[in-house]
Amino acid sequence: MMSVVGAQPFIKPMQTPTSISPGIQRRHTLPASEVRPLNTQDAISVFEIEREAFISVSGECPLHLDEVRHFLTLCPDLSMGWFEEGRLVAFIIGSLHLDCLSLPQEALTLHKPCGSTVHIHVLAVHRTFRQQGKGPILMWRYLQYLRCFPSVRRAVLMCEDFLIPFYRKSGFKVLGRCAITVGNLTFTEMWYPIRGHAYIRRNSEAIRFPQHPLTLPITKTDERVDV
Ligand SMILES: CC(C)(COP(=O)(O)OP(=O)(O)OC[C@H]1O[C@@H](n2cnc3c(N)ncnc32)[C@H](O)[C@@H]1OP(=O)(O)O)[C@@H](O)C(=O)NCCC(=O)NCCS
């Protein structure tokens, strides 16, 4: 698997515990907001969101529970979860695959550590937290985070056509029709260039997780930072 030593410092809790005065017993409170990579222990929470977001709608979902566990075992550093008081409210799961013109079927299940394209399998926001801008914020952070991986050149995803405008707002461009179908569902492929090595060139606030996600406005300049 690719080295992410340089990338890891950027994934850290958005709120760190305050210092504890001597003599005052530690209170085990959960951080109000936290963004961190997912692990296999988060798989059930991930799947619960997917169940509501996808299975209840179309009977299908991007990743079944065993596939969630599979990717969170193989490449947890390509996932990102947003937690509010310990509860998963939004997440992204990605894996690497080799460059090619169109997403191959195997991209749905495989992780190719030597690949330079991140396949974003799924972005989903818990139902009660939608329409608050969390999806675009998490996506923006994820795309900035990917710049810390020296070999990553692009991110690709497949989405149903009604979500094309949504991903366009995050800077994705349409690649074309996706050869993959799932049941009756058809998809469009979209991509986003990753201009990498941000952690080498600068240590800017643009790629550091700030104290609170909502303190970070998404602007045109933020969406694409030239390096
Ligand atoms: C799509 C999703 C990630 C958006 O996250 P969010 O945090 O709610 O995003 P926002 O707060 O910006 O607001 C919702 C936006 O999502 C898009 N959207 C969500 N559902 C949509 C739908 N059924 N049709 C069209 N656009 C939709 C719209 O752009 C909408 O913005 P608008 O209300 O101004 O039109 C979220 O709705 C979700 O998790 N949906 C279920 C899972 C899913 O479809 N994931 C994408 C798989 S490729």
Automatic annotation (TrEMBL):
Xref: InterPro entries: Acyl_CoA_acyltransferase, GNAT_dom, SNAT-like
Record field: catalytic activity: a 2-arylethylamine + acetyl-CoA = an N-acetyl-2-arylethylamine + CoA + H(+)
Subcellular location: Cytoplasm
GO biological process: circadian rhythm; melatonin biosynthetic process; response to light stimulus
Enzyme class: transferase
Gene3D superfamilies for this protein: 3.40.630.30
UniProt entry keywords in alphabetical sequence: Acyltransferase, Biological rhythms, Cytoplasm, Melatonin biosynthesis, Phosphoprotein, Transferase
Gene Ontology CC annotation, any one: cytoplasm
Domain N-acetyltransferase, chain residue ranges per copy: 33-195
EC number: 2.3.1.87
Predominant location: cytoplasm
Highest taxon, organism lineage: Eukaryota
UniProt-listed Pfam families: Acetyltransf_1
Protein name: Serotonin N-acetyltransferase
